[in-house]
Amino acid sequence: MYRVFLVDDEPFIMEGLAYLIDWERHGLQIVGKAADGAEALEALAAETIDILITDIQMPHMNGLELIRSVRELQPDVKFIILSGYNDFDYVKEGVTLGIENYLLKPVNTEELIRTLTATVAKIEQSVYKEESIKRHLEIIRDNLLYRWVTAAIEPEELRNREELLGIRLGLPGYVVGTIKLLFDQEQAETAEVSSRAETIAAVRTYCQRTARSYGPGQAVFADLEGDLVLLAGLNDVDADRTGFVRFMAELQAAIRERWGLPLLVTVGEASKGEASAHRSYRTAKRMQDYYVLAPHDGPLVYEAPVLPAAAEPAAPAQAELAHFCKLLSAGKKDEALAWVGEAFTRLRETEGLAPSDVQNTAMAVLAAAVHHANLMRQEHEGAIGDYKHLFSQVVKPQTMQELEELVERFVDRVLFASEAAEREYSPVIRQVLREVERRYGDELSLKTLSQAFHMNPVYLGQLFHKETGETFSDYVNKYRLAQAKALLVESNLKTSDISARVGYTDTSYFYKQFRKYYGFSPTEYRNWSKLGDG
């Protein structure tokens, strides 16, 4: 609602205006009234308005004097004059003062409404333009600050942009803090994208306002990952960084209480001089990885000894994973879940454990379970749901306990689905499935299998489709592709050799089938998996 103030020394005119027009319908609200200019000016010293509607001839202070005085107090106010005098001099002076319209009494209601509508449109256009400029400047400022903390800007350009940055240069030191809002999986799936963006924007505004109260040497911006970054100047490098850590802890508690969202807050090293601010940003971002090692209620603060390198990778060895796969194949649920628990227990006992060790372990176990699910056709049947988001969840900030529970839930779901699948298939179809598992690299057909089982091939094909929901050829094709997918990651074999090993004599046909089912080529998948490992 835009705020309107009425000024007229004739009470019945003010009351008439208040009741003749549906102000709310036009996005307006009358917030005050006065009988003369002096009274109005006194009220407007404490009342912010958007539109002033005033008479000209009034005691103590006329309308034109009032307009001049109000413009000094509130430069953006729009003015509409009502007058019983059709005096050209009044009109001319009103125009020089920038009024929206000069209406004669008795007021024509329709003309006043047209004037109000045009005035509101002008205000909204001005607001939109101002917001557009503000957003544009914010994008430029974010880009400059991000280039600063990633050492991607030359010192001369940085100094030329100091006023736009909003933070003093040349201080003894700088420190960076980061804030990552931890929307959980359910929120990520159910919340509107716009709603999440609005929440992040609201938190950013709150951080900007709060940072000003902390001190003038603060800048708040968003980096390319969507994290909020607070960059603070330090006069006393050690003492001021300690104060900044306290400030970030208070900010974390306030955001958690106000929005009810978990968040991860980190603080980087104190860097000396503006040229080394990128070190503080880099270490603040690296500290986000350490959330997986233990739960934290306050900020994760960088200390040099906190980032050791593990002597040896802590991920399970191939022999251990092979044993886990055998447990899955045998349907030994309790033993498989116990194996997962032991793997994470070993992690907790590993000296010099790094976040990547925890994530690599989770990735390896999940990959083995997914591979088993592919073999059991659970992807097609939907028995375990869409697991493609699992691997992105692993690298999201969470505690080791939460990560272990994620892995256990998935393994439990896979084994439950496997048991259900075994119960649903007839003995003959179970034999067919085992033959596919054993001989998928050979030439397979219903004709050869039906001979082995002493059955009519047409009847066997109908029975297979009825129980599995897909044709025999489609099932074999998917099974071979699943094997190929695993070999692309686990071996250094050429793609043509993998194609032949899983039963495709035509490599180009293998490429087409792989892209059809997975959306990318075998080469693209192998390159992507290597990036994930790195």
Automatic annotation (TrEMBL):
Cited InterPro entries: CdaR_GGDEF (IPR041522), CheY-like_superfamily (IPR011006), Homeodomain-like_sf (IPR009057), HptR (IPR051552), HTH_AraC (IPR018060), Sig_transdc_resp-reg_receiver (IPR001789), Tscrpt_reg_AraC-type_HTH (IPR020449)
Magnesium keyword on record: no
Pfam family, one: GGDEF_2
Keyword Phosphoprotein: yes
Main location per the UniProt record: cytoplasm
Keywords carried by this UniProt record: Cytoplasm, DNA-binding, Phosphoprotein, Transcription, Transcription regulation, Two-component regulatory system
Subcellular location: Cytoplasm
Domain HTH araC/xylS-type per the UniProt entry, residue ranges: 430-528
Residue intervals of the Response regulatory domain: 3-120
Name of protein: Response regulator
Organism classification: Bacteria, Bacillati, Bacillota, Bacilli, Bacillales
